[in-house]
Structure formats: C-alpha cells, structure tokens
C-alpha cells in the first residue's frame, strides 16, 4: 500500500494499538491512523493515552507522534488513540476541495500543471502552473465550477496502482516533487473525483475499515467522465457534497509561470460570502440600481471620474500656462527668469516639468515652477542656449532648504524641502 493509513481510511478516528518505542515525548505506535504532515496537509491532532498530540512527523516512512507532555504509559503497553475529528474533517474537506478546484482549472485554463498546495487554519492555497491569465472573471468561473461539483454529489475514490501504469493514464495530475507521500515502492495512490451521473458512488467497489468503521469507496468503474484524477497522499471525503461551500478569496503570482489561488471552506467560506454579499447590497443601495447592474454602474462612474480628472488636469495646465505667460520676468545673472507656484493645485512634477520645458526660451531663459501639497517640490527648465544650468539652480535650492534632486542642464527637479513654495520662490527672486 502506498501512502499513509490515515489516507486509506480517513474516517477511522479511534483505535487501540501497542506502543513500540518512546524517546522522551516522541512515541512510535505499532499501528497509526494519525496523518503525518506531508504534501501541504498538516498533521492530525488528537490524543494518545489521554495525552495531547502536538505533532505527527514522518521520519524514514515511520510515524513519530510528538506529545504535549511526558507519556504516562510504557513501551509495550496498549493505548487508546483518538483523532480530533473536527480538524481531520476540515482537512479532508479542504484537500478534496483543492482537487475540485484543479478539476475546474482543467476546464477553463490552458497548459495546466500542479505546482503545490497548502492547508492553513483559515484558507487553503493551490499553486497552478498555467499560461492562462487568471483575472477576476476567471476566478468567479472557477468558484462556480467548484461549487457545482459539490452540488452534483460526485463520488470521491482512491486506489493503489503501479507507478508505471499510472504514468500511462491520461489526465492524471502527476507531480512526484509535491506529492512524494503518494509514492511507495513503485506504487502510487490515485484519487479520483468521479462523474456527476454516478450519483454518489456508481458501481465502484467499496471496502470497510478493519476497525468496523464506515465504508470507504476505493475505486470506480470509470463509467462517467471524472472531474479530476491525481496522484495524492492526503485524506479526502467520500463525496463532494461533504466539502460544503467553497469561496475563492484571491490570487497572486508566487513565481514565474505560477498562479496561487486561495480559497476557504466551511464557516470561513460562509463568513467571506456574507461580507461580499453585504458589500454588494450596500453598493446596490448607494448606487440605486439593481444588483445585476452594479458592475455597469460602477464602470460608468469610473469613466466619468477619469474624464473629470482629465478635464481638471487640462484646466490646471491651461491655468499654469496663463500664469507663466502673464508673469513679469526678472533679471538675474544676466538672464530673464520667471517663477510661479502651483501649491493650490494637484499638479505633479511630470506635468510641471513638461510645462516648464515648453516655456523655457519662450517666456524666459529660466523657468521655475514650485508646487506640492504636503512637501514642496521645484522644477527648473532652461533654454538650451542658456548659460545657466537647471541642475545648478536645483542645487542652489537644496543648499538653502535641504531635500534632494537632480537632472540635466536643461531640466531638473528636487523635493523634500524644509520650506513652503512661497519661501522657495522668494529665495530665487532678487
């Protein structure tokens, strides 16, 4: 058998076995249904002989149970073991949901590969290798498909197969680097989410746990198109309906060619849906449109805002151009200078620099525009034939008021001054 006993019999949560070795708080058992941390799935929680289990590790293929306190039992003694069913079931649901997500990805993404998986306390993440762009619309499609697979009550089964045979089968997600726990002595554990028309089991064979526990589906006859087939060593539910609600949370790019999708199951998924629904209803009330029209209305308002911003920017530029043209130049260093402030505007240094460059040589030899709402900045432009360097003017300002900046002989800028725009222009004017 490949994989862990817990993966083969995930519904077995109470068992009695013999303690084979004790090393401090590290305990070995003759038989263990505890899941040892592997492949992105955390270790089971529970008790051994009434003492809490802090961790379960796999060392050379053997389960090492790390207790929270020193054991009160001896090697050779039989102990009652209990696995925390709530956490075990959460991991079963989360792990099966990751397969359902991958199955959804098979249907909407190109060149799909499996890049990793991790179960956290509140969310699960799956790393997908794909050339497809996963935008918001794709996220919604993936979430919809996963929850349809849950609603359709598709059977979940697992079987042990020779690795060579598994490699020849089409559509198996096969990654030995991330799923090493599924492989053992030339065999691999294959987990299948079956077709919707199998209605919870189809004609697959079924086996009962040795402890007399619940029946577990171990294979299907392949009579329906499977939703997903993958090499996996984790614990899973017997039917997708046991997963419950799934809510996709977000996406990110942890590395080249990888897209990470985060989702929640159970109460966390329900809570996230409530937050999202509340936001949608608030938007509907605020915008005064049906919920189905909120997206279009927001897009319309965004376009209006962008157009208004562009109009305001254009008006600001026109105002500054007028101020520069109407300014009375003053003479300094045998050159004509013009200074103006735009402190009352939202103009940034890029626009200010462009206006100063256009005015240099037209309205004066040296043009200085000073602005900034929080901290002041100064932009200096000079005529190409001028004997005065724009960078030298900026250096003069930083020497007087601190800050920093730089540029070229014809265009330079600086910021972070310990002064107001009015104080800076006063320093430059005679």
UniProtKB/TrEMBL annotation:
Keyword Zinc among record annotations: yes
UniProt keyword annotation of Cytoplasm present: no
Entry's family note: Belongs to the class-II aminoacyl-tRNA synthetase family.
Keyword annotations of the record: Aminoacyl-tRNA synthetase, ATP-binding, Coiled coil, Ligase, Nucleotide-binding, Protein biosynthesis, RNA-binding, tRNA-binding, Zinc
An example Gene Ontology molecular-function term: tRNA binding
Location of region: Disordered: 194-225, 406-430
Alphabetized Pfam families for the sequence: tRNA-synt_2c, tRNA_SAD
Coiled-coil regions, chain positions: 291-325
Protein name, entry field: Threonyl/alanyl tRNA synthetase SAD
Sequence ranges assigned to domain Alanyl-transfer RNA synthetases family profile in this UniProt record: 1-275
GO biological process: alanyl-tRNA aminoacylation
InterPro entries, per database record: Ala-tRNA-synth_IIc_core, Ala-tRNA-synth_IIc_N, Ala-tRNA_ligase, Thr/Ala-tRNA-synth_IIc_edit, Transl_B-barrel_sf, tRNA_SAD
Gene3D superfamilies according to UniProt: 2.40.30.130, 3.10.310.40, Threonyl-trna Synthetase, Chain A, domain 2 (3.30.980.10)
Signal peptide: none
């Amino acid at each position: 058998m490949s994989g862990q006993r817990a993966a083969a019999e995930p519904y077995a949560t109470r068992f009695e076995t013999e303690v084979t070795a004790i090393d401090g708080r590290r305990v070995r058992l003759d038989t263990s249904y505890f899941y040892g941390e592997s492949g992105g799935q955390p270790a089971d929680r529970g008790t051994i002989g009434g003492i809490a289990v802090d961790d379960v590790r796999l060392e050379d293929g053997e389960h090492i149970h790390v207790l929270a306190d020193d054991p009160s039992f001896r090697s050779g003694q039989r102990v009652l073991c209990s696995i925390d069913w709530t956490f075990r079931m959460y991991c079963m649901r989360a792990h099966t949901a990751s397969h359902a997500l991958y199955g959804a990805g098979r249907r909407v993404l190109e060149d799909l590969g499996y890049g990793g998986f991790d179960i956290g306390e509140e969310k699960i993440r799956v790393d997908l290798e794909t050339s497809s762009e996963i935008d918001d619309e794709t996220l919604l499609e993936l979430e919809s498909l996963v929850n349809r697979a849950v609603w359709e009550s598709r059977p979940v089964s697992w079987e042990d197969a020779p690795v060579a045979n598994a490699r020849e089968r089409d559509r198996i997600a096969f990654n030995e680097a991330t799923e090493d726990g599924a492989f053992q002595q030339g065999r691999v554990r294959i987990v299948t989410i079956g077709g919707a028309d199998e209605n919870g089991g189809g004609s697959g064979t079924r086996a009962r746990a040795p402890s007399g526990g619940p029946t577990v589906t171990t294979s299907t006859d392949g009579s329906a198109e499977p939703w997903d087939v993958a090499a996996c060593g984790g614990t899973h539910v017997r039917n997708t309906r046991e997963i419950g609600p799934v809510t996709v949370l977000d996406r990110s790019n942890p590395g080249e060619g990888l897209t990470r999708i985060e989702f929640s199951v159970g109460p966390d998924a329900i809570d996230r849906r409530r937050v999202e629904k509340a936001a949608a209803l608030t938007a509907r009330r605020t915008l005064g449109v049906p919920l189905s029209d909120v997206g279009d209305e927001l897009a319309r308002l965004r376009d209006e805002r962008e157009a208004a911003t562009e109009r305001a920017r254009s008006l600001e530029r026109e105002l500054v151009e007028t101020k520069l043209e109407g300014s009375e130049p003053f003479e300094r260093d045998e050159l004509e200078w013009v200074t103006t402030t735009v402190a009352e505007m939202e103009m940034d240094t890029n626009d200010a620099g462009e206006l100063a460059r256009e005015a240099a040589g037209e309205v004066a030899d040296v043009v200085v525009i000073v602005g900034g709402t929080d901290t002041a900045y100064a932009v200096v432009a000079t005529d190409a034939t001028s004997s005065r360097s724009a960078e030298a003017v900026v250096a003069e300002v930083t020497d007087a008021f601190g800050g920093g900046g730089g540029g070229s002989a014809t265009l330079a800028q600086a910021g972070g001054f310990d002064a107001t725009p009015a104080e800076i222009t006063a320093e430059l004017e005679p």
